Amino acid sequence: MARLRVLFIGGTGIISSACVRSALVAGYDVAVINRGTTSHRPVPSDVEILHADVRDSDVVEAAVSGRRFDVVADFMSFVPDHVESHVAR
User: Fold this and answer.
1) Between the chain's N and C termini, which has fewer beta carbons within 10 Å?
2) pTM, rounded to two decimals
3) What is the extent of the structural domain holding 49?
4) Would you give the distance in Å from CA 89 to the centre of its chain?
5) Can you give the CATH number for the domain in which 81 is found?
6) pLDDT per residue over 39-84, tens digit each?
């Protein structure tokens, strides 16, 4: 059986970094999409990092192009407009 592929939008915050580590322990293939500007909670080495600013839809679309995920967890949407911009694509 193929491993589940999980994408975390964010992935370096207090809660999302814990979720990334938990997903790895559970045996999932994990990717994060973020700007790559924080060093407070580094992304584990076995996580695929997709660099993009989630507020730039064109860059996000290019970063995930050709990839498929079973689960997407968005830790960067705080208002309805943020969610709508992701769903519209």
Assistant:
1) N
2) 0.85
3) 5-87
4) 16
5) 3.40.50.720
6) 788 899 999 999 999 888 889 899 999 999 999 999 887 777 767 7
